[in-house]
Task: inverse folding
């Protein structure tokens, strides 16, 4: 059994001819579509949409940064605790993983803790 020179024994010529043909057809189709104006416009629109979608979390964070956080009113009443309850509760609620969450050098406040004297108003 003798085959073409350089051919591995047991391999057919089908795979040696098919891969280059597939590559040639794919290359021709891509280059043909690349010449069309619709393909270029659609590609630009998809790139812009992808960048916009990737930027949404940052945009939402910038919008949300303007808010002062949820308002929590604390009524201590007549008791006189040894610590400042409002400050302590504010520090506890506005930490994540044991440390304040910094945004652009300042800590964000998810909760705005304020003191109140009236239980009904709080």
Result:
């Amino acid at each position: 059994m003798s085959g073409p020179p350089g051919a591995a024994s047991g391999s057919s010529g089908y795979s040696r001819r098919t891969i280059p043909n597939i590559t040639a057809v794919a290359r021709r189709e891509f280059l043909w579509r690349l010449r069309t104006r619709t393909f270029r416009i659609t590609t630009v629109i998809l790139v812009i949409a992808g960048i916009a979608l990737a930027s949404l979390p940052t945009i939402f964070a910038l919008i949300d940064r303007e808010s002062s956080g949820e308002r929590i009113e604390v009524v201590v009443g007549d008791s006189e605790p040894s610590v400042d309850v409002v400050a302590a509760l504010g520090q506890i609620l506005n930490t994540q993983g044991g440390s304040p969450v910094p945004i652009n050098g300042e800590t964000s406040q998810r909760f705005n803790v304020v003191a109140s004297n009236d239980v009904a108003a709080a």
